[in-house]
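To: structure desk
From: M.T.
Subject: fold request, one chain
Message: Could you run this one when you get a chance? Sequence is below, nothing fancy, just the single chain.
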Amino acid sequence: MRGVKHGRTGQGPVYGTVSRIGLPAAPAWMRWLPVMFVAAVLLLEPVTPVQWPVSFVLIALPLVTAFAHRPVVVVAAAAFAVFLEGVLAGTPCCAGRQVGYLWERHYVAAYVCTALVGALGTILATHRIRRERTLADVRFVADIAQRVLLRPVPHRIGNLRLESLYLSAAAEARIGGDLYEAVPTRFGVRLLIGDVRGKGLLAVETAAALLGAFREAAHDESDLAALADRVETSMSRRATQLGGNEAGERFVTAVFAEIPGEGQVVRVVNCGHPPPLLILPGEVRELDRGRSAPPLNLGVLVGDAYHVDAYPFRPGAQLLLYTDGVTETRDADGSFYPLTERLRQWGPLPLRELLDWLHHDLLAYSDNRLEDDTAALAACLLSGEPKAGEP
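Reply: Done. Structure tokens follow.
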């Protein structure tokens, strides 16, 4: 596909001409299955008694071909199957039968059945390709929708290096309820990571509303607590449009973070979300002072003010924001993923390498069975001015 290209690890997009997405290729073993099927028949036919015509199983060849090939290949496979059935029926050197068997009624019935199965296989292959094309188009639209919802974060904003990671629990899913964003403002770089309650279109709609409110308010509110309060107000207003009990169930756990232009400090407002991690040489620390606010859209039920906690954030330090899909990943024994221990073992790594290691380690730990969407946003404060050729 030419057009918007973007990896799940948060790498930037490449914009070009958008064209129709290509059909996915079938696995190699499935493409070679018809050849292996014919080879098996040719191996068995000479060693079986004459009264056991193994060639009759060639009737299934068109259907075997239809699983992975186009209709024209299925037609060719059906014609080849009829030809091979005739050769095996009337060739003494191959099957030990006389030429007269060629038109024996059982073999004629096999020819007719093979032709009919070939017609059915051609219809099946045509229908399969249409469904695959529809699925490919839907996934292409979903990819574009996710690019709009989760825009790739810049790799660098001023003296701050940024990287992101997004993993979907469902292999075919492209959009979920986990979200992240980084916005450069006159107050510094403002970061957001969140996790919408629930799944499906409702979660996607809620995530889109939250991101839109954050992107707008981040430029206007000078105080991080005021920013969280404004996003909360926007979320509550949009939730009331649903009406009924569903409005109260639409909430989001989130972390707002702010790193001023001069660095040296990171300010955090936590709304019921897993606390960020500060990664230093020889140390991994949770940024949590026990003053987490309720999730967004539930704050009105409690009425507590948002608390801004400030922590030292000096050059070389790394900040990791993540959703609970990371820490709630389980292994075969049901044990949760030990994120902090893993980070201590790995030591400080370049941000891209850190998220790549996290990506592969989560898949290995869960045996490729993620049960929840996962998002992570990492930031590193650089020292000094950019070097020549550095972005």
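Reply (cont.): Residues 1-20, 386-391 have pLDDT under 50 and may be disordered. Let me know if you need anything else for the meeting.
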